[in-house]
Design brief:
Elements lengths: L1 H19 L13 E5 L7 E2 L6 E6 L11 E6 L15 E2 L20 E9 L9 E8 L4 E7 L17 E10 L6
Antiparallel strand pairs: 1-3, 1-9, 2-9, 3-4, 4-5, 6-7, 7-8, 8-9
Length: about 180
């Protein structure tokens, strides 16, 4: 009788744990894997970025709430007439913002279809450029969204804003690939 009661309690605990927790480890990229994708082309979803920018994300989803960088991002924009190729981010670590863990933003919820979202600081490859924020959302369909944003300087009527200080916003939709995204 006692054994039957124990089995019932164990089953309820196991069921509750399965319903109450989500396993984010499935988002972790393995050796040679990455999440790859392009910036959303629509102008309302993009500022300060070319529509040709692509992103690569490597991720250790188990470290998303930890004190160390859970991954890196890299971007690539192919050369165009009169423009060299550009790599705004080059294996740039997703840096946790410790104080954020104590704020409601650490529980950011963008709604249905997203299991977990987190905000990180990320530094461009150009050390003179201002850092940006990366909002990483792990989606229920096993894809990842990354939003990159920087407030930038206010526009000036007297001088152009340097590229390293301009406003930036981009939404990237990424899928897991068995390669390094071709760049």
């Amino acid at each position: 009788m006692l054994r039957r009661a124990f089995e019932c309690v164990a089953a309820v605990i196991a069921l509750g744990a399965g319903l109450g927790c989500s396993n984010l480890d499935r988002f972790t990229t393995g050796a040679g894997e990455a999440y790859c994708g392009a910036v959303i082309i629509g102008a309302p979803f993009r500022a300060g970025l070319s529509p040709r920018v692509q992103m690569r994300l490597t991720l250790d989803a188990g470290a998303i709430d930890g004190p160390s960088a859970p991954g890196t991002i890299s971007t690539f924009e192919a050369a165009d007439v009169g423009q060299p190729e550009e790599r705004t981010f080059a294996e740039s670590p997703l840096r946790p913002i410790p104080a954020l863990a104590h704020d409601a933003l650490s529980h950011l919820d963008f709604g249905d279809g997203r299991e977990r979202s987190a905000i990180f600081a990320v530094s461009p490859a150009d050390e003179a450029a201002e850092a940006m924020l990366a909002v990483v959302s792990l989606r229920t369909d096993d894809t990842v969204e990354v939003r990159i944003l920087r407030a930038g300087l206010a526009p000036s009527a007297t001088a152009p804003t340097p590229a390293t200080r301009r406003q930036v916003f981009g939404l990237f939709s990424l899928t897991r690939q068995p390669n390094r995204c071709g760049f």
